[in-house]
Amino acid sequence: MDLCHVPAAREKGWYLALMAPNVKGPNYAWLDPSRLYCHPQGLQDCVTDLLQPFQGDPIDMVAGIDAMGFILGAAAAAVLRKGFLAIRKAGHLCVQTLAQPYTDYSGREKVMEVRTDAISPGLRILLVDQWVETGGTMRAAIQLVEQLGGPHPRVPVGIAAICIEDSEGGRWIRERYKCTHCIPPHLQPQFDRHQ
């Protein structure tokens, strides 16, 4: 798809056609959304769709998950006029951090961390990542935010991603948090099967 072309009828998810399939094999994600971010209207419409369910909800800060969640999260924070917090893979922050081990979508054991001085008790956080496949990465981010935010019913406010797959982890997240993603219901089964 032409990175300058904007369709006359922009239905929710039209920009999903900008994503490219994996051509490098099983060690990579099955789909690459990064070309979507290069398309000015595609990126704007994606962020608008992600934020629409949270209109009117009190959000104090947006947190994005390393690394591709930084793009959508920072864009969402700019639209909302809120601050942005980077939840990083371990070893990149030179300040005091809280760490959380997790297993990513490929089954690899990893650790993510967040600075301890950015979230005060009760702060309402919108967590953003590019994709929720197995849910391990997002669950670790939720645990970090909840540990720092204290026992408050609105931490986090919600979860936003281009796709939240219908996996065990995806269902766990959907059952407990307000969630939004960009996949139209009739296409969800194809994304769950990685087609």
UniProtKB/TrEMBL annotation:
It is found in: Cytoplasm. GO terms for cellular component: cytoplasm. The chain crosses the membrane at residues 61-80. It comes from the Eukaryota. The keyword Membrane applies. SUPFAM superfamilies: PRTase-like. Its EC number is 2.4.2.7. Homodimer. This is adenine phosphoribosyltransferase. It comes from Aegotheles bennettii. The lineage of its organism: Eukaryota, Metazoa, Chordata, Craniata, Vertebrata.
